[in-house]
Amino acid sequence: MATSRAAEESRERLVALVLLLQSATRHAPLTQETIVRELLVDDDPTAKRVRKVRAYQGSDGAVRQKFERDKAKIRELGFQIDTVDLDAGSVGYWIDPDSATAPRIDFTDDEERVVRLALRFCGFGSDGAFSLFNEGPGGDGGLEFTNYYTPVLRALNLHRVLRFDYRSTSEKTREVDPLAIGVFEGAAYLVGRVHGTQEIKGYRIMRMTSMPVVLEERFDADDATRDLARAWRPEYAKVLRPTQVLVTTSENYAELLTRQYPEATREDHDGVVDVGITFESERDALRFVIDAADRVRLRSPKSLRREYAAWLSEVNRGPVPDLSGVSFSPSATNDSLGQTLQLLHAVYLAGDGLRISDLAHRFSLAPAVVRRVMDRLVTFEPMAGVYGFPAHLVKECDDWDDEANDDSLYVVEHFDREGVHEPAPLFWRDLFEVNIALREAARVYLDPAIESAIAKIEMAVDGFVGVETATNETVLEELRAAIDHHEQVKIEYTASGAEQVSTRVIEPRDLRVLNGHSYVRAYCTTRESWRTFRVDRIGAILAKSPASAPRPADDVHNWLTQVGEVGDEVVVVLDTNLRWLFEPLPNAQWRALDDGRLAVAFRVGDPSFLDHLMLRAGPGAVVATPAYAKAGRALASRIAERL
């Protein structure tokens, strides 16, 4: 977080403006002239006597530009600033508090306990709701974090039309009647009806290129339309033609396939196995054989073999543009306004308040930064006597004589004002995250409090949320129990790209979800090191016993996404319709190219990972990094020879 004087002034001005506009109403909005004339902020919070100064100073042009920039930053966080036409041609502004903050939900002690557990299992990382409920800092993110969730959920709740810019093969402005949110393999989609038509479509939320706007226009949808939206999938087609696929594979990989596809058939032949699986469409079938790579040999149907052969011939082949002058923007991070409001909301949520040390630990901030931000929130009195706030922070010190070093406590003090809501402790996006985390955790934890917490959220959101996982992870509950009871387990495991099963003895320590798959972090006594195992590749748990031997500390904090922090940097150029495949890569950086394609930079620790990634990408993707220019080609050739 920036600590310059200008950054601190901008932070206080933005937070003051957000809270101030939330205290205005549609019938009593604030004009720019009024805000510029009367909005006050602290001049220097380090001074012994705080002096109030005007938040907007300078020439008329400079003030107008600063005010417009501030409004844009507030909208980027998900708040909807509404305008009201006033007399004499002037315009007033106000923020509906419900546009970004969700209705207050009072969880029971048991429900709050399972919320904490769920967010540890499947959270959005340090930018998400984790730090609002857990005492420690957020770690790896299991799902994509974005402020776009806020207006999407609000539109679902109000049954109002949503407008946003969206990029698929091209970028266009869309107007949609939002009907549901679905999470498929870790990616969130808005499912809705194209406004003014009966067409149901899905929009991946991370492909939205502008903050969605909730329009005034409402819409109606009957039960049949909503059922169709709930049934939508990323591979959705109006007419599905089932495709029966027959592959030959090893006994071990056949076991893995029959666990993942319970309806599959198998027939053994002297060490090899024929496996038959029925897919809803040929496109689903093609994705299956591509993901299986050289671990299976495709036998039928012939039409799929021809399509697969054409796919293999195009792996990592195509024109490579000159990228010598191309720079990549860093991954997006939460800005100072968002960070400040999260700190404020954490205190709102904690009835007994939070100390500087608590907030510093939760949000991975220096105590001095927390003190500076929170002390400014304590002294907020912009436009005092004209517009008030429904609550403000009170600072309590154990040693007022040494206030600069005291581990001060911050508590919310509420005021009862007619027509003003008590501040909600959660953003709409926080409710969405908690809902998804609870649904994912329900696969591991058997607790009635999970269902009751989900019911409370669904009642508040009034929008259907569906979570679909790609695999059958039958050993999750046993791994969870092993973590709780500090046990070591003997497992059968098939590593990525391997055909043969291996036997490992591991001591599980943590379970998390990323991109629709569950992973367990464990000390592997077989390899004598900390390892990460994908749960759906664990064939069976053969035995359990107490874990008694001391183990070295795990020195990898964000173990789930460390692939994004180590290895060689690789740049891939791809068609826009392939972005979905590369979006989940941790710490990926993007750049739009002049020829309409995209360039993505990420790190690769294992060349075989890049081989399989380029195989999955197929036509339309090419590696631009010379050292990896042939990635995936040898793998594609080996598979083609077996067709």
What layout of secondary structure does this protein have?
Blueprint: H1 5-23, E1 30-31, H2 32-38, E2 40-42, E3 52-54, H3 60-76, E4 81-85, E5 91-95, H4 109-121, H5 130-133, H6 149-158, E6 160-167, E7 171-184, E8 187-194, E9 200-204, E10 213-218, H7 223-230, E11 243-250, H8 251-260, E12 265-269, E13 272-279, H9 282-292, E14 296-300, H10 302-313, H11 336-349, E15 354-355, H12 356-363, H13 367-378, E16 391-396, E17 409-414, H14 428-441, H15 448-461, E18 464-468, H16 476-484, E19 487-493, E20 502-514, E21 517-524, E22 529-534, E23 538-546, E24 568-574, H17 579-582, E25 589-592, E26 598-604, H18 607-617, E27 621-623, H19 633-641
Parallel strand pairs: 7-18
Antiparallel strand pairs: 1-5, 2-3, 4-5, 6-7, 6-10, 7-8, 8-9, 11-13, 11-14, 12-13, 15-17, 16-17, 19-20, 19-23, 20-21, 21-22, 24-26, 24-27, 25-26
Brief overview:
The protein is α+β, with helices and mostly antiparallel strands and about 650 residues long.
Describe the protein in words:
- This protein is of the alpha+beta class and 643 residues long.
- Among the domains are: 243-313, Alpha-Beta Plaits (2-Layer Sandwich); 476-557; 565-641, Alpha-Beta Plaits.
- It has 19 helices and 27 strands.
- The strands form 7 sheets. Strands 6, 7, 8, 9, 10 and 18 form a 6-stranded mixed beta sheet that branches. The protein has a 5-stranded antiparallel beta sheet with strand order 22-21-20-19-23. It has a 4-stranded antiparallel beta sheet with strand order 12-13-11-14.
- A hairpin with a 5-residue loop joins strand 4 (81-85) and strand 5 (91-95).
- It is globular, with a radius of gyration of 27 Å.
- 34% of the residues are buried.
